[in-house]
Amino acid sequence: MTPRSHTIGKSAAIAIVGAAIVGGALTGCSSSSGEVSTVSAASTSYVDNPVDPAQLNQVLDRIAATGLPVTGRHDATAARCPAAGCSSAVESDQVILMQFPSTGRAQLYAGAHPGDFQVVDLVMTFPEGTDAAQNARYKDALQGEMR
């Protein structure tokens, strides 16, 4: 065997093994009908949030203490969280505050909803038609509370 044929044989063997690995990986990604299967989420998740869900009202209390109104406050968890993916929500006439299981999930939600404001695992959203300058004051107050 010449040195060159030995190199070609080794390259061919590596290519065959690589193709087998890629083929096996692709086969694992498709269902028997040829459709791509979805991966289901784990039943438990790691929570990296520093804010206790029971504290959402306390966060709104501290925002109100800055002089901003927070009227008509009520629990909106059942109404908002199934669609949003949050773990708890409190709604007022001026602002909606949602808490997510992780900072990453909050970031994904806020990124998909222009105008929403995210700090750690909290997303602040505003009712339709609210004033942009007023919304900025609420954003500043929330950011100040999370420091």
What does this structure look like?
This protein is α+β, with helices and mostly antiparallel strands and 147 residues long. Helices cover 47% and strands 12% of the residues. It has helices at 3-29, 56-65, 77-84, 103-112, 132-145, and strands spanning 74-75, 88-91, 96-99, 117-119, 122-125. It has a five-stranded antiparallel β-sheet, sandwiched between helices. Strand 2 (88-91) and strand 3 form a beta hairpin. Helix 2 (56-65) packs across helix 5. The chain starts with a helix and ends with a helix.
Question: Can you give me a brief rundown of this structure?
Answer:
Helix 2 (56-65) crosses helix 5 (132-145). This protein has helices at 3-29, 56-65, 77-84, 103-112, 132-145, and strands at 74-75, 88-91, 96-99, 117-119, 122-125. Mean pLDDT is 75; it is low at 11-49.
Beta strand %: 5-15%
Large-scale geometry:
globular
Report the structural category: alpha+beta
How are the strands of the largest sheet arranged? 1-2-3-5-4
Q: What is the chains' assembly state?
A: single chain
Q: Roughly how many Å is the radius of gyration? A: 25 Å
Average pLDDT across residues? 75
Tell me the distance between the termini.
71 Å
The major sheet is characterized as: 5 strands, antiparallel
Order of helices and strands: HHEHEEHEEH
Count of runs of 4 or more consecutive helical residues: 5
Taking pLDDT < 50 over at least 5 consecutive residues as the criterion, the unreliable ranges are: 11-49
